[in-house]
Amino acid sequence: MDPVADNPLRTRDDFQRAVGQLFEPLSAHFSPGKARVRPMASGAHFPDVAAELEGFARPLWGIVPLGAQGEFDRWELFREGLVNGTDPSHEEYWGTAGDHSQKHVEMAAIGVGLALTPEHLWEPLSEVERDRLVAWLNQINDAELPDCNWLFFRVMVNVGLRSVGARHDWERTQDSLDRLESFYRGDGWYTDGPASDRSPVDYYLPWAMHFYGLVYATVAGEADPERAERFRARAETFASHHVHWFAEDGRALPYGRSLTYRFAQASFWGGLAFAGLDPLPWGVIRGLWARNVRWWLDQPIFTDGGLLSVGYRYPSIKMSEDYNSPNSPYWAMKAFFPLALSADHPFWQAAEEPLPDLPTRIVQPEAGKVICRADDHLFALSLPQDSTHGREKYTKFAYSTEFGFSVAGRSPGPGRAGHDSALALSLDGDQFKTPGSLTATEMEGTTVVSRWEPWNGVRVDSWVAPALPSHVRLHRLVSDRTIHTEEGGFALDRTGDDGTEFTHETGDGTALARYPNGMSAIASLGTDRSATVIDGEPNTNLHHSRTVVPTLRETYEPGEHWFGSAVRASPDREAAWERGMTAVPTEAGIAVETADGERLLDPSNGAE
Question: Angle, to 10 degrees, between the axis of helix 48-57 and the axis of helix 103-116?
Answer without folding.
Answer: 20
